[in-house]
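Title: Prediction job returns without error message
Component: structure pipeline
Severity: low
Priority: P3
Assignee: unassigned

Description:
Job completed but the reporter wants confirmation the result is attached to the right record. Sequence as submitted:
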Amino acid sequence: MTKRLPCPPAPGPLEAYAARFDDLFGTLAQRRGFREYLAGLLLPRDRNKTLTCLAGAEPVAGSQHAAVQRPQFFLSEPTWDQETVSARRLELLLADPATAPHPGGVLVIDDSGDRKDGTAPAHVGKQYLGSVGKTDRGVVTVTTCWADERVHYPVHACPYTPARHFPRGKNDPGFRTKLLIAADLAARAKAAGWPSARWPPTAHTATRTASAPACRS
């Protein structure tokens, strides 16, 4: 069996967290991409979490930079299983007393939307987007998020697909409303060890980055 090449470590204490996922990635490029992605999510930025922002590059002009292309390939052409990676993340959260669910916290369900230009992106449609406070063309994702007075973090997430993407519209067997998606996510969270959910939330404590580690507040 070929010995694995060492991976450049993630900054500071993030390396100890990233190393817990190494067995889920088959190549050095994937392990490196995972570390760069995590670091980019946690760095303070003035702009939204686009790939150029994650890599610290200029928007548009910097899109072809190697530091941008690496996370682009890591996310858009994955040979690793995202469900397995997310399951490992949840296992670590459950095992840590600082992030494990307890009766003093709450599982919040939210539907957050972001604007998207054009009609080609998956799941895009004209719908209400909470991020802009009006109906516009964009993508909405239903999420479950655990929150208490100390920490908050995403549990599960599922994009909502508007009816226009289905041959029979709202009558298509594959179409699911946001409420049905929310109910499924709440059941998944409960089965995984999180308590009952509250939706809509009383405060915006949810984070939209499903692959990020827990955020201390």
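Comment from assignee: result matches the submitted record. The longest helix spans residues 28-42.
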